[in-house]
Design a protein that fits this description.
The complex is a heterodimer. Chain A is of the alpha/beta class. Helices cover about 35% and strands about 25% of the residues of chain A. Chain A is built from nine helices and twelve strands. Chain B has a two-stranded antiparallel ribbon. Classes of the chains: A alpha/beta, B mainly alpha.
Chain lengths: ~270, ~325
């Protein structure tokens, strides 16, 4: 990786986008899930993607860290092509090791948390730093406790996921992703599996993270979050970007009928 | 669970509640059933103790006979070593079966197909007669000079043949058990670990396998206990020191098969019981975080506050007992 992973470029210094998604297509068999998506995310920006289920928004997110492969187009993170190596006029698949290296720079938070159930909250957070980055256990623990403190769960460090509420599990999952010091955080409907009264805590952690300058791509149904924290809002439907721009303007005054209809149903 | 419910009344009385103390449903037929079982048991014991043809004296004489104890030892050695070989191979075969590498997948499939598809008795016969098939094991360049050579009979003696024969056969069955275990782990676990930048082999070993073990242990315990008895087939090699062979030999020498069958049965039952205890602890270890954690128990103060209709204090380290405090909590509240 050529990119500096520790320095966080401030928002106004953003000249070179961190994420460039160019004309991305994706097929599942005959199903054309993504039909030419373009999206740019600058460093420090919070990019929110909304849309009805089946619109391809989660698929797009999963393409960015190679949980899905794309059928056409290009995705760049920090000017590095994701998933392939360009050589001559052909693309070559990256091997297991190179893919793992690219994913290291990108944190991901899942709808269903996916904490490791056989490990405590603390063990979940230190797993990747100790196993992938080869940090010492002691150093990783210090950092993990800071992160758990940040998400308000330092008193739950020794709890197993099954002893935590959904909201607490999701906050541990955020801490786990942050432990790898990623440049970019992907959130795949992070509050959709939560009881309504637990959503607020998770959103608060995400707001704090946005304020700290983290670059985030958030797929969500939380329109309030998009309005309050989002720098850009993208509305997707049936595999295309219908509308994209300033979240407050789009929510207040959607230009397309489909956006209007969707917003009227979720607001 | 039951102790949890029994603790409730103490809390409830503190809160001044009129707790329900209902008369439980009576089960008279359970008592009848128990009486019948006790009667059958008594009859069985009576018949076994009074029937002289059991030759309990002979049973006692041979129970701790040196040959028998050595037989127990050899049976244990065969069981443990062949299961160790089988487990190591099974993990490898199950990982190979899930690999992206088609070569690994085919090799694993063919292995399971072959070793599961031929009788273990035949395989033991084969390993026993491999010395006749290949009198010498030679390491060298194909069609070129030979570098080292050994007598097959000294390398693959009866013990090695028995252990290898049992282990390879068992690995095929265990591979399928391990494969089922790996498949039982939610796909989200793989994705979460991948998203953290972990490599496939590490994910399998540290994330997927430990969770799969919960599913793998019970049938593997079953296979181990099965193997304990399957070791009696090693006479096909021929291997003649295991418990069944020794007790059979003693039976033909004394012309008293029944007491020596009882001796063998006693030892098999004892070893099985010990294995079951071991399995209990292994299951408990791999159930960590899933099977044997209680929801962090709420301390009395919070429960009483709730019973009085006051909103409970926000959960903090003080009113939620930590998992490792469970024992001390039970005593005081």
């Amino acid at each position: 990786m050529t990119a500096p992973s520790t320095s966080r470029p401030s928002q106004n210094a953003a000249i070179n986008p961190l994420v460039k998604i160019q004309d991305v297509h994706k097929f599942y068999g005959d199903h054309h899930v993504l039909q030419g998506i373009d999206l740019t995310v600058n460093p420090g920006e919070v990019s929110v993607i909304i849309g009805p289920s089946g619109s391809g928004k989660s698929t797009l997110l999963r393409c960015i860290n190679l949980l899905e492969t794309i059928s056409a187009g290009r995705i760049y993170v920090h000017d590095e092509l994701i998933g392939y190596r360009e050589h001559g006029d052909r693309l070559h698949d990256l091997n297991d090791k190179q893919i793992a290296a690219q994913r290291r720079e990108i944190g991901m938070v899942f709808q269903r948390f996916n904490l490791f159930p056989h490990k405590t909250a603390l063990q979940n957070v230190i797993e990747a730093p100790t196993q992938v980055k080869k940090q010492s256990k002691a150093a990783a623990k210090v950092r993990a406790l800071e992160l758990l403190e940040m998400v308000g769960l330092s008193d739950r460090a020794n709890y197993y996921p099954s002893q935590l509420s959904g909201g607490q599990q999701q906050r541990v999952a955020i801490a786990r992703a942050l432990a790898m010091e990623p440049e970019l955080m992907l959130f795949d409907e992070p509050t959709s599996a939560l009881d309504p009264e637990l959503v607020g805590d998770v959103l608060q952690v995400m707001k704090d993270l946005a304020k700290s300058g983290m670059t985030m791509i958030v797929v969500t149904h939380e329109i309030g979050f998009a309005r309050e924290v989002g720098d850009t809002l993208t509305f997707m439907d049936a595999g295309v970007v219908v509308e994209s721009g300033n979240p407050r303007e789009i929510i207040a005054n959607p230009q397309h009928a489909r956006t209007k209809e969707f917003l009227s149903r979720v607001l | 669970m039951s102790s949890f419910f029994r603790r409730q009344p103490a809390l409830g009385k503190d809160a001044g509640l009129d707790l329900i103390d209902a008369v439980p449903v009576r089960h008279p037929w359970r008592w009848v059933g128990a009486a019948v079982i006790v009667l059958i048991l008594a009859l069985a014991i009576q018949s076994m103790t009074t029937n002289p043809k059991f030759y309990w004296g002979t049973f006692r004489t041979y129970l701790f006979d040196v040959l028998v104890i050595q037989g127990v030892g050899w049976t244990l050695i065969l069981t443990v070593s062949s299961m160790v070989i089988a487990i190591v191979l099974a993990i490898l075969l199950a990982f190979m079966r899930q690999s992206d590498n088609p070569l690994f997948r085919y090799v694993s499939w063919v292995w399971v197909w072959f070793f599961r598809g031929t009788p273990v008795y035949t395989q033991l016969l084969f390993w026993g007669s491999i010395g006749a098939l290949y009198p010498k094991i030679v390491v060298g360049v194909p069609f070129g000079p030979e570098l080292f050579s050994w007598d097959t009979a000294t390398v693959i003696n009866a013990t090695v043949a028995a252990i290898v024969g049992l282990g390879l056969n068992e690995s095929a069955y265990l591979a399928e058990i391990f494969r089922a275990g790996l498949k039982s782990v939610d796909n989200g676990q793989m994705e979460a670990a991948e998203a953290l930048g972990m490599r496939k082999a590490k994910i399998m070993w540290r994330i997927i396998l430990p969770q799969a073990m919960r599913v793998i242990i019970p049938p593997t315990g079953n296979e181990t206990i099965g193997m304990l008895k399957t070791t009696s087939l090693v006479l096909a090699v021929p291997f003649t020191l295991d418990l069944t062979f020794v007790t059979n030999a003693l039976a033909s020498r004394t012309f008293l098969p029944i007491p020596l069958l009882m001796v063998a049965a006693f030892w098999y039952l004892l070893i099985t019981s010990i294995l079951m205890v071991g399995q209990y602890y292994i299951e408990r270890h791999f159930g960590k975080g899933v099977d044997n954690v209680m929801k962090a128990p709420v301390k009395a103060t919070a429960a009483v506050a709730a019973a009085h209709g006051r909103p409970p204090a926000p959960p903090t380290a003080e009113n939620i007992a930590r998992p490792h405090d469970e024992n001390t909590e039970g005593g005081t509240s």
